[in-house]
Here is the input.
Amino acid sequence: MKGFGFATHGGAEQLGSVDVPRPEPGPGDVAVRVAAASFNRLDRFVLAGIPGVPIELPHVLGSDGAGWVEAVGVGVNDLELGDRVLINPGLWDGTCPACIAGIECQCRQFRILGEHTQGSVTDRVVVPRRNVHPIPPGLSFEQAAAAPLVFQTAWRAIVTIGAVAPGETVAVIGAGGGVATAVIQVAKLRGARVVVASRTAGKLAAATALGADATLTFSEGRPLDRVLWEWSGKQGIDVIFDSVGAPTLPRSVRALARGGRAVVIGATAGPVVELDVRTLFWRQASVRGSTMATRAEFATMFEHLVAGRLRPVVDQVYHREDARAAFARLDAPDLFGKVVVRVSADA
Here is the structure.
């Protein structure tokens, strides 16, 4: 079976068509014929190689996908062949103490489609039945493929880990990534006042159109903590969503309000950070990590997606033969939303 990925870790020069075994559904599984898939910044790290994470080679990229039910395993009786579905890329064993407690994303065997397993930019993906959901009315395959990873990540980060309450201030560091577009929407749904801070002004109008209450630019001369502190009336920000890492997190912490929370879901620009802990204990603030979501969090998020209160943001859609160009789009300075690949000509 053909897929888009790599046979050797490295840079974009390693990307191309790869051959991987065609998966078959076992008991309780569903085989999805992929119509559309999308990239995340995670795919860049998978390509480069993640220390401590064994990755089967050759490897297909892509965590998100949507398509048609093509086959089902024994015990799956509530789906019809041809049903339009999207895939939750979070995989858990269902038997460990964390899973039994309903905290599936803390499962010791937790995996992400496309990172720990073969990915979605291919003809067929097999996942457990619990990972398959009907595409919400009004969403295309491309929109459906843009939703699962970023919205579940945003939901847990804002609602559970960040504990955002109505009326609080939320700052989103960086304007263009798919998770940022989801965080803006989830934070507004929670009744927060949202400010988006970016080094470049080009994408801030789109953030405003998505619901941001204010937008700011920062630079070496006007650093992140200063612009956030001034915008907040020198009160600080209640919750700061930072997925950039080394260049911004120390300054995000300095901009926190008393009792404020910096929520980290990634480190796209560097993982090693030096913090002044005096800010944390004096303001009784905290830095919290978050990744993916529990099954219940995904279900709640999905209800809002079905109701149209959350909408996937698609930057561009590429045909399968242009997947390399789609991957390169992740680094475009004007990126805003998810990069989607139309895998099947029937989509």
User: Anything to note?
Assistant: The radius of gyration is 20 Å. The chain has a mean pLDDT of 96. The first strand starts at residue 2 and ends at 6. Residues 152-289 form a domain with the Quinone Oxidoreductase; Chain A, domain 1 fold (CATH 3.90.180.10).
